[in-house]
Amino acid sequence: MNVLFVAHAYPRWDSDIAGVFVERLAVALTARTHSVEVIAPADQGKAGHEHRRGIPVFRVRYAPKSRENLAYSGSMVQRGRGLVGTLTVAGLVGAHAHEISRRRRTAGVDIVHAHWWVPAGLATWMARLAPSCPYIVTLHGTDVALFKNSWMARFLAKRVLRGAAAVTAVSSYLAREVERQIGFDSEQIVVQPMPVDVARFNRTSQGGGGVVAVGRLTKQKNIDMVLEAVAQLGRTGRDVTLTVVGDGPERASLERRARELELIQQTRFLGAVTPEQVPEALGNADTLVFPASNEGFGLVAAEALMLGIPVVASQGGGGVTDIVPALGGGRLVSASHPEALASAIRELLDDPKSRELAVETGRRLKRRLAPDAVAQAFESVYQEALARH
Fold first, then answer.
1. What is the chain's percent helix, strand, coil content, to nearest 5?
2. Alpha-helical segments (H) within 57-81
């Protein structure tokens, strides 16, 4: 079938991480003999038609060059505020809607797949596709977070999702949040994560590397609780090393807290790494601690398990609870209680079977998140959507 992807983030070069999982799905669908085209925004005037990995990509102009900075930076919400920002977002949605209609007429599109309900889903809904060309929407997490403080987002999202032939979400947490925030029945949402380059996780951690925490250093990631947990372990006679991978606005505060807790000699702040460097950064960790709250998916927890590293995660971590088992190769605890984190870390360190069980969980995740498996799942979603139309 002919599938048209619409996304506000899609790789611009080979090492670009913007929307790389969207490209991964597009490539996997192409390998299953489907035809895929992509509509994405221009990047500060850089627009036009290109081919990436054999897939046609149409980058659409939507504003003056200096204002074409909404996409690719991870700051669309902030840059979309105010009168000028709102007008720029409207320009992006309108330009995408126009291009969707044009590709629909000229390319024989069977189905449109919008990634994120806004701006891509909103543009697809505005394109007023004929009944013979249904659209589906995938919710990734940042788009669902918009519901919390915006009645307009909730108002528009209801219409976008109700017009879709199918709605998917990358975690059951997001499906529940959509129902809670806007009343869209979570039973109608297909939970399907995006594909992962599982081939990069081709070894098994041997352990001995201590505790590792990975993530952007923001308050939402709760890395301070990992420091408190490691200090708690030390007070009970269990000294462990800690590696913090990532960077962000909380780094200086976290380094200061490590000194206050007298952990600075056993704590290493590695800084940010690329997605390709994550397996190396995780190394031979004994345990990954992932205390973030309200995560859309929790990719790094899946990556750790695919390396056979046991994981401690927050029971309020959102999508990560789809990944990390409560027992065996993982633990789900209250991230706001360092004592609970410390106890879970100790349990995993002392349980000789935890690594074996983490390896088995990782094998299942590899099968589930492999690009071809995910492409096959979306193929079924497309076929059901077309059958209903």
1. 50, 20, 35
2. 76-79
Q: What distance in Å separates the CA atoms of residue 381 and residue 167, rounded to the nearest whole number?
A: 9
Nearest CA-CA partner of 34 in 56, 3, 11: 3
The terminus-to-terminus CA distance of the chain in angstroms comes to 14
Residue with tokens 């605890």: 333
Burial of 302 (0-12, 13-18, 19+ CB in 10 A): buried
Q: Report d(CA 295, CA 318) in Å as an integer.
A: 5
pLDDT for res 380: 98
Could you read off the pLDDT of 88-135 as tens digits, one per residue? 999 999 999 999 999 988 888 999 999 999 999 999 999 987 777 999
Cβ atoms within 10 Å, residue 50: 14
Contacting residues for 102 by C-beta, under 8 A, at least 6 apart? none
Geometric angle at alpha carbon 169, from 127 and 379, rounded to 5°: 75
- In terms of Cα–Cα distance, which of 367, 365, 216, 341 is closest to 287? 341
pTM beyond 0.90, yes or no? yes
Sequence-distant (6+) residues with CB within 8 A of 210 are 240, 241, 242, 243, 266, 285, 286
Q: What's the one-letter identity of residue 227?
A: L
Give the model confidence (pLDDT) of 310-353 as tens digits: 999 999 989 999 999 999 999 999 989 999 999 999 999 999 89
Distance of alpha carbon 197 from alpha carbon 112, whole angstroms: 24
Return the pLDDT at 188.
96
Burial of residue 127 (CB within 10 Å: 0-12, 13-18, 19+) is buried
Give bridge partners of residue 6 from the DSSP assignment: 39, 114
Quote the longest CA-to-CA distance of the chain. 69
Tokens encoding 4: 């048209």
Helices H / strands E in the chain, number of each: 14, 14
Residue 56, preceding peptide bond in cis (omega within 30° of 0): no
Q: How far is CA 47 from the centre of its chain?
A: 26
Positions in the chain short of pLDDT 50: none
User: Quick one: DSSP state of residue 121?
Assistant: I
Question: Reduced to 3 states, what is the DSSP secondary structure of residue 116?
Answer: coil
Which pairing describes strands 242-245 and 311-314: parallel, antiparallel, or unpaired? unpaired
